[in-house]
Design a protein that fits this description.
The complex is a heterotrimer of chains A (about 220), B (about 250) and C (about 270). Chain A contains eight helices and no strands. By secondary structure, chain A is mainly α. Chain A has one domain: MetI-like fold (Orthogonal Bundle). Chain B has about 250 residues and is an all-alpha fold. Chain B has a single domain, classed as MetI-like (MetI-like fold, Orthogonal Bundle), CATH 1.10.3720. Helices cover about 75% and strands about 0% of the residues of chain B. Chain B is globular, with a radius of gyration of 21 Å. By secondary structure, chain C is an alpha/beta fold. Chain C has a six-stranded mixed β-sheet with strand order 8-9-10-3-11-12, sandwiched between helices. Chain C has a four-stranded antiparallel β-sheet with strand order 2-1-4-5, with helices on one face. In chain C, α3 runs parallel beside α5, α4 crosses α5 and α5 packs parallel to α6. Classes of the chains: A mainly alpha (about 220), B mainly alpha (about 250), C alpha/beta (about 270). Chains in contact: A-B, B-C. Chain A: InterPro entries: AA_ABC_transptr_permease_3TM (IPR010065), ArtM/GltK/GlnP/TcyL/YhdX-like (IPR043429), Ectoine_EhuD (IPR014341), MetI-like (IPR000515), MetI-like_sf (IPR035906). Chain A: Belongs to the binding-protein-dependent transport system permease family. Chain A: This is Ectoine/hydroxyectoine ABC transporter permease subunit EhuD.
Chain lengths: ~220, ~250, ~270
């Protein structure tokens, strides 16, 4: 067992490149997951049956199957239909699509968690449908939703290394690449520790936020 | 679409391996969940801190990176060799066990304090209280979140294909490399995972109904929603996203 | 107020002779945050007596039972059962907090019935009663079940041995809880507002069972209740509590008919 810090030094430039890619995937993946999830939630809640049912079925299917296989599907099958994307773009879409099926449940629970009495009070005050949503329901739902969405960002961070399977040079991609070309083994350890160093403080932060928002 | 030879030599063994890895890593994760989860309710601070640290560390760990680390780094560091499948099961069991410990801890914490007090009044030892009162009552509460975790674990088993374990995802990749025709095989894979998830959910719901009957609760409704409601369960405990920690 | 806890010599434990001192609270203090519930409380209960604690809610009656059952620890003072410290041990001549083993040894003399019954929902009625005798006292399954069936007959539920607690009415559940406590053959039975959670028509059945036990056994009873008629019926002694102190004590006739203290009179006027 001989750990060589010079290998770590050599790896660090690659690590920072990988970190940038990981964060990029996470940022855009989250944006897709947050917005697409809202679309699913609204479609399931207030869309007509012929929309709500297929949406339920599709989100259920996506949620129950591995992100990794979905990545392969998007990267190898979809281009044959004439839609080619770079590995990173494919990764972002897959990540966003996969977790939009989770965030949609978060939105649904958040909206469903607002007591019925709040809707009734809004009706009794003759608030418009729009005011009911923007002034009464959503502000209350947000308190429940935001911490959970934040936690899904952490989940997505931990799942993002799967993107290396389609050639994305994220943190793990860089680490694996470096290890295999130099026949050293320190890089993966650096990457592993990096995930803990990012994810743990992030979850502490979210806990603090949750305590402030949910009372 | 699939040659008989590929089907016999790679695909079926791959499916069987996915089943094996799911079962073995689930059993391993289950044991870890209970040991760590119970220790996290210990009377001794130091035990709570150590088991809590286990939870925090592995909850913050990426399963795939950890799997690579066990499969590639550990053998080089320690000059030992073990089967890739072993690395996969180890990594899945350790990380999903950390999530599971939150289920066990949460369900134990939800047992009413009055039940613990009744146990004290009858002079049970702390161990007897845990085994005869607290765990039996917490068990039905654990099953829905355990079902969700099990589905996540099933999905997670596909990661072993990246450390050269020939599971069904690995077989799918092989098929693409050999024939270049990827649409049917990946579609089939997705459908298979979905079917497995569905079967697991059925089994877990059955266990849940049994468990509820055993503590004198009425079983959950099994209406249309239960049949078509897919494979996720509503539960107060969500170890994947819950903030966990001290409450 | 005696201060015998200073002596370093070993106490001679009194066997449960009828009439001897069974329970002693010595300068017991209990606080919840800044709220002092019990304030330097001294009192004792003799073996075989039936003692009822009355007083306004929040006056510390239930806290006494919970301290005796070791569901909470005193902030100051000591409690003795049969002359032995309950939550303390004498080590090298010094009084130190007791370990689990010591507490369990002393605690086996005490049984408790709770306001909310607290039956184990995961066990049928019979097993609720036999579980502790088997696993704590080491009785054989047959012995424990025989004892349990006798007790179930006594509380009038001989035919419900195989029901789950949730299938019983509140009154039935409480009678099972009484049987469960008695199955441990405790010297003292703590009754914590055992009828407060019951529908009015179910109260009588539970009180009848308790009267029966008070009459036919020599078990010591320490009882917190708002049922004044029941208290008058079964008590040898009534203790009136207010703000964590005993302000008056005596026979039920004296307390209920000619109370000395204004607060007692006010309280009785309010509840009777």
């Amino acid at each position: 067992m001989n750990w060589d810090w010079s290998h770590v030094d050599d790896f660090m430039p690659h690590f920072w490149d990988g970190l940038r890619v990981t964060l990029e995937a996470l940022l855009f993946g989250s944006l897709i997951a947050f917005s697409l999830g809202l679309v699913w939630a609204v479609a399931q809640r207030s869309g007509p049956k012929w929309i709500a049912w297929p949406v339920t079925a599709i989100t259920e299917f996506i949620r129950s199957t591995p992100l990794l296989v979905q990545l392969f599907f998007l990267f190898y099958v979809v281009p044959s239909w004439g839609l080619s994307m770079s590995p990173l773009t494919t990764g972002i879409v897959a990540l966003g699509l996969h977790y939009s099926t989770y965030t949609s449940e978060v939105y649904r629970a958040g909206i469903g968690g607002v007591p019925v009495g709040q809707w009734e009070a809004a009706t009794a005050l003759s608030l418009s449908r729009r005011r009911t949503w923007t002034a009464v329901i959503l502000p209350q739902a947000v308190r429940r939703v935001v911490p959970v969405l934040g936690n899904y960002v952490i989940v997505m961070l931990k799942e993002s290394p799967q993107l290396m399977a389609i050639g994305v040079l994220d943190m793990l991609g860089q680490g694996q690449d470096f290890s295999q070309t130099t026949f050293t083994y320190e890089a993966i350890s650096v990457v592993g520790i990096a995930f803990i160093v990012i994810a743990y403080p992030a979850s502490l932060l979210l806990r603090a936020l949750e305590r402030r928002l949910v009372r | 679409m699939m040659s008989a030879k590929f089907f016999e030599n790679w695909f079926l063994p791959g499916v069987w391996l996915t089943v094996q890895i799911t079962v073995l890593s689930a059993l391993f994760a289950f044991v870890v969940s209970f040991v760590i989860g119970v220790l996290r309710t210990s009377r001794w601070r130091i035990v709570r801190i150590l088991s809590g640290a286990y939870f925090e560390i592995f909850r913050s760990t990426s399963a795939l990176v950890f799997m690579f680390w066990i499969a590639f780094t550990v053998p080089m560091l320690l000059h030992i060799k073990f089967a890739p499948m072993f690395s996969g099961i180890l990594a899945l069991g350790i990380t999903y066990g950390a999530y599971g410990s939150e289920i066990v801890r949460g369900a134990l914490a939800a047992v009413p304090a009055a039940q613990r007090e009744a146990g004290i009044a009858l002079n049970f030892t702390p161990m007897q209280r845990l085994r005869r009162i607290e765990l039996p009552q917490a068990w039905p509460e654990m099953l829905p979140p355990f079902n969700n975790l099990l589905i996540e674990l099933l999905k997670g088993t596909s990661l072993v294909s990246l450390i050269a374990v020939a599971d069904m995802t690995f077989a799918g990749n092989l098929k693409r490399l050999v024939s270049g025709d990827s649409a049917p095989i990946y579609t089939l894979l997705l459908v298979l995972y979905f079917v497995f998830a569905f079967i697991l959910t059925r089994v877990m719901r059955l266990l849940e109904r049994r468990a509820k009957a055993r503590v004198g609760q009425r079983p959950a409704q099994s209406g249309l929603r239960a049949l078509f409601g897919g494979v996720r369960e509503k539960s107060a405990i969500d170890p994947i996203t819950s903030a966990g920690g001290a409450k | 107020m005696s201060a015998d806890s200073n002596s370093s010599s070993q106490e001679t434990p009194n066997p449960a002779v009828d009439g001897s001192e069974l329970i002693r609270f010595d300068k017991v203090t209990k606080r919840f945050g800044s709220n002092t519930v019990l304030d330097n409380l001294d009192f004792s209960v003799n073996s075989g007596k039936h003692v009822t604690l009355i007083g306004p809610s929040g006056s510390g009656k239930t806290t006494i039972l919970r301290l005796l059952m070791t569901l909470m620890k005193p902030d100051g003072g000591t409690i003795k059962v049969n002359g032995e410290y309950l939550t303390h041990e004498v080590k090298d001549g010094k009084l130190v907090p007791a370990g689990e083993k010591h507490i369990r040894e002393i605690r086996k003399n005490i049984g408790m019935v709770f306001q909310q019954f607290n039956l184990f929902p995961n066990m049928k009625v019979l097993r609720n009663i036999t579980e502790a005798p088997i696993s704590v006292l080491g009785l054989s399954k047959d012995e424990a079940e025989e004892r349990a069936r006798e007790l179930l007959d006594m509380v009038g539920l001989g035919d419900r041995a195989d029901a789950y607690p949730t299938q019983l009415s509140g009154g039935q559940q409480q009678r099972v809880a009484i049987a469960r406590a008695l199955a441990m053959r405790p010297q003292v039975l703590l009754l914590d507002e055992v009828t407060s959670a019951l529908d009015p028509e179910l109260v009588a059945g539970v009180l009848d069972v308790l009267r029966d036990i008070a009459r036919s056994t020599d078990i010591t009873m320490l009882c917190v209740t708002h049922e004044m008629n029941f208290a008058r019926d079964i008590s040898d002694q009534v203790l009136m509590f207010d703000s964590g102190r005993i302000i008056e004590s005596g026979s039920p006739d004296k307390i209920f008919s000619e109370p000395e203290h204004d607060r007692t009179r006010e309280f009785l006027n309010a509840v009777l």
